[in-house]
UniProtKB/TrEMBL annotation:
<keyword id="KW-0642">Proline metabolism</keyword>
<dbReference type="GO" id="GO:0004657">
    <property type="term" value="F:proline dehydrogenase activity"/>
</dbReference>
<keyword id="KW-0285">Flavoprotein</keyword>
<comment type="function">
    <text>Converts proline to delta-1-pyrroline-5-carboxylate.</text>
</comment>
<dbReference type="Pfam" id="PF01619">
    <property type="entry name" value="Pro_dh"/>
</dbReference>
<dbReference type="InterPro" id="IPR002872">
    <property type="entry name" value="Proline_DH_dom"/>
</dbReference>
<protein>
    <recommendedName>
        <fullName>Proline dehydrogenase</fullName>
        <ecNumber>1.5.5.2</ecNumber>
    </recommendedName>
</protein>
<dbReference type="GO" id="GO:0071949">
    <property type="term" value="F:FAD binding"/>
</dbReference>
<keyword id="KW-0274">FAD</keyword>
<feature type="compositionally biased region" description="Polar residues">
    <location>
        <begin position="29"/>
        <end position="51"/>
    </location>
</feature>
<dbReference type="GO" id="GO:0005739">
    <property type="term" value="C:mitochondrion"/>
</dbReference>
<dbReference type="InterPro" id="IPR015659">
    <property type="entry name" value="Proline_oxidase"/>
</dbReference>
<dbReference type="GO" id="GO:0010133">
    <property type="term" value="P:L-proline catabolic process to L-glutamate"/>
</dbReference>
<feature type="region of interest" description="Disordered">
    <location>
        <begin position="27"/>
        <end position="51"/>
    </location>
</feature>
<comment type="similarity">
    <text>Belongs to the proline oxidase family.</text>
</comment>
<feature type="domain" description="Proline dehydrogenase">
    <location>
        <begin position="181"/>
        <end position="442"/>
    </location>
</feature>
<keyword id="KW-0560">Oxidoreductase</keyword>
Length: 458
């Protein structure tokens, strides 16, 4: 399934919002409503079974296939990413998509709209509303302005400032992001986005500057007041131990009353990840706060000290799966289910095997009368949409089987927002990530082509 803003044309053409809900939520009513009101090419032949991609528009299917072909062709990929990187790093007005209308007209509909939420409040609202009508429980919205990842030697010694404008603009960007999400949604926070002085404090394991603490108080209190949540992204190892420490301080302060307002991010590719999670469990148990964990594999393998990371992909996979299993079954070594602290688990990733394993275990535990921690799943907008679709379909069948919507998996889409220029580095990373997952991409393209053939009866 491809879940991007191009699907919006379905929504725009539909006469009644209530009918849209029915389109996405009720598979049985879907085909008739779709054929009547929106995408004529989605009409299903009675002999053909709808696939899990049935919610997607044909325009979107085609775009996913085209982008998939680019990502899986070494030649097209090489030149495509070289162009994107050049634009992302250029200071020239001609290569600035916010200033050059022609460049923007090329990048925005084909790439930006595929991966990003929008450039302004109206575009973003349309995207978020649309995703929710599709059955997503919520979204994670991230303000795209960032300083690019850098080695610590590259951090020069910036003079300390009384009032750091980078922190002010980072705070304002995050507050603006909070303004655009709803209760239950998340805002993703990246500490290094607060500028070089904050990055330097992280790299040198210092305490956060008072201005950053004040900014985080504003952001956390705002999020709590409106019922939204925050997660703190994991970054390079040069920053991460301090990010963990600052995040624990926030969780201690705000994750009271058995709820995780703030979640930390754990990178399972690190050899130290099990030890880190054990220490966090011990600390939350000792101090009585809820541990919010977003579990990822880790995104910086290309730039990290390799010896810190598991030697093989299989070891990273095993580590990710074992942490998810131990947290869900409250069987982390050193703990019993009785003294296990309250946790909330967010599984972020595109690996279908890990997702299926965790979802199955969670369902089995519930059926056995156990009380596993709540679990949420998140994929990036424009990526692994077939997996998001599979999770949504599991929700459809699980709710139908039990008549209890609470057993459906809680599925989220995570996306950046900002001007096309501000999102360029993010887009380069997405392109690279898609290419490094080329085999998965090939199978996704295969599934999409099959769905397209089904629709055109070929
Ligand atoms: C919603 C969301 C939020 C995210 N937030 C963050 C974040 O805050 N911080 C962050 O670092 N990443 C983050 N990521 C990215 C994530 O860490 C992964 O890079 C990405 O999701 C791809 O991994 P995967 O779990 O989807 O599965 P796969 O594609 O199956 O796994 C790929 C991953 O396996 C690991 N790997 C690959 N080859 C090897 C090898 N030879 N040896 C050891 N390990 C290997 C790497 O971590 C690689 O990224 C996020 C991803 C999502 C979907």
């Amino acid at each position: 399934m491809n879940i991007t803003k191009h699907n919006l044309f379905v929504r725009k053409n539909a006469p009644l919002p209530g009918q849209i809900q029915a389109i996405w939520r009720s598979p049985r009513r879907q085909s008739s409503l779709v054929s009547r009101h929106s995408d004529a090419s989605s009409v299903e032949s009675p002999k053909q079974q709808p696939s899990q991609l049935h919610r997607i528009s044909t325009v979107n299917l085609v775009r996913n296939i085209v982008l998939g072909k680019v990502f899986t062709s070494p030649f097209l990929f090489k030149y495509g990413v070289a162009c994107l990187s050049k634009i992302a790093n250029s200071k020239s007005a001609i290569l600035d998509p916010d200033k050059n209308a022609l460049l923007r007209a090329l990048i925005k509909p084909m790439i930006y709209d595929h991966f990003c939420a929008g450039t302004n409040k109206l575009e973003i609202k349309r995207t978020l509303d649309y995703l929710k009508t599709m059955g997503f429980k919520g979204v994670i919205l991230i303000y795209s302005k960032e300083i690019p990842a850098m080695p610590v030697e590259a951090l020069n010694d910036p003079e300390p400032l009384i009032q750091d404008e980078d922190i002010d603009s980072w705070r304002d960007g995050n507050v603006k992001t909070l303004d655009m999400v709803e209760p239950g949604d998340y805002v993703g926070i990246k500490f290094t986005g607060a500028g070089p002085r904050v990055a330097q404090a992280l790299a040198q394991d210092r305490d956060p500057p008072q201005q950053l603490l004040d900014a985080m108080s504003i952001i956390c209190e705002r999020a709590a007041a409106q019922g939204s949540r925050l997660w703190i992204d994991a970054e390079q190892q040069v920053f991460q131990p301090t990010i963990d420490r600052w995040t624990i301080d926030l969780m201690r302060r705000y994750n009271t009353h058995n709820q995780a307002l703030v979640s930390t991010t754990l990178q399972a590719y690190l050899k130290s990840s099990r030890t880190t999670v054990k220490k966090m469990l011990q600390q939350s148990h000792r101090e009585g706060w809820t541990l919010g964990i977003k579990l990822v594999r880790g995104a910086y393998i290309g730039s990290e000290t390799r010896s810190l990371i598991h030697d093989t992909k299989t070891q990273t996979d095993d580590c990710y799966n074992s942490i998810a299993t131990d947290l869900l079954s409250k069987s982390f070594p050193g703990f019993t289910p009785q003294d296990f602290p309250p946790i909330e688990l967010f599984l972020a990733g595109h690996n279908s095997e890990s997702i299926r394993k965790a979802y199955t275990l969670h369902q089995n535990l519930l059926q056995n009368g156990d009380t596993p921690p709540p679990i949420k799943f998140g994929q990036l907008l424009g990526m692994a949409d077939d997996i998001s679709g599979e999770l949504l379909a599991m929700g459809d069948s699980s709710s139908q089987a039990t008549e209890n919507p609470a057993t459906a998996p809680m599925v989220y889409k995570c996306m950046n927002w900002g001007s096309v220029r501000e999102c360029m580095h993010y887009l380069v990373r997405r392109a690279t990530e898609n290419q490094s997952a080329a085999s998965r991409m090939e199978s996704t393209v295969g599934v999409m082509q099959k769905e397209l053939r089904r629709r055109i009866g070929f």
